[in-house]
Amino acid sequence: MIPPSLELIDRLLREDVPYFDLTTTLLGLPEVPARMTFRARAPMVVAGTEFVTALCERVGVRVASALPNGRLVTAGEMILTAVGTPAQLHLAWKVAANVLESAGGIATRTHQLVGAARAVSDSVEVYATRKVIPGTKELALAAVLAGGGLPHRLGLAETVLIFAQHTAFLGGTTGLVERLPKLVERACEKVVLVEVERLDDALAVAAAGAGGVQFDKVPPAQLADMVAALRAAAPAVRVIAAGGINAANAAEYAATGVSGLATSWMYGGAPADIAVTIEPS
Looking at the domain 120-267, which fold is it? Predict the structure, then answer.
C-alpha cells in the first residue's frame, strides 16, 4: 500500500491530542533521550507499523526498529522501538498503541480465517467486506492484507455485484437475466457477480453470462451440492460464499469447492494485546 496520508495521520493524532499534553506539560519532564517499545503480550500478526512510523515522525519521534506487517510473533517479542524526548514519546504513545492493537487484532483474525480455509483448499481466498467502522477503511485494509486476506470490494465504483436490492426493481431474476448479456458487454473489463440464495437462480444468471455467483447464507452441506451442480453447468463461473463465515466454519465452507469466502468476521473482536514501555534510553 502507499504510505498513509498526512491528513489521516493528523486526524488520528488529533483524536487523542487535539492541542497539547497537559500532564506532560505540568510535570515538566526533562528533554533527555528516551525510548518507547511495543511488545506482544500474546501471539499475534503484526499490522499497522507503517501508520505508527508516520505518526511518530509527525511528532518528531524516530522509529529505530519495526517488524514488517504480516509477521507472526510470539508473546514477549518486540514489534517496534522508537526514540525521542519523553514529551514527544507521550504524544505518540496511545495513538500508536491503538493503531497496532486494532490492526493487529484484524490481521490476526484474518490469519486464522486464511489458515482454516487453506488447510482444506490451498486455492481458496479470504475476502474482507467493506463493512468496516466508518473512517477506518485504510487501516482495516492494511490489516487484512497483513493477515493474508484480500478486499472483497474497495468501493461501489470498483466492481459489479448485483444484489436482490437491485433486482427488486427489475422484476427479479427473470428481469435481470434479460439485461445481463448487455450489462456484461458494457462491463467487458469487469467480472459481473450476482448474489443468489437458490441454485436455479445461480444457473440462470450463469447461463446469461454472469462471471461469478455469490451464494449468501447457504449452509455448507447444501452449498457443496449447489457448487457441484453450478460448476458442472458453467465450469468457468467463479463462486463465492458469503454470510456468517468465521474461523470456526471457514474450513467447512472452503471444502464446498468455492473460489473464495467473503466475510466481515475479522473486523469484530478484541484488539491485539500489546505492552508499551517508555523509559530513559
Answer: TIM Barrel (3.20.20)
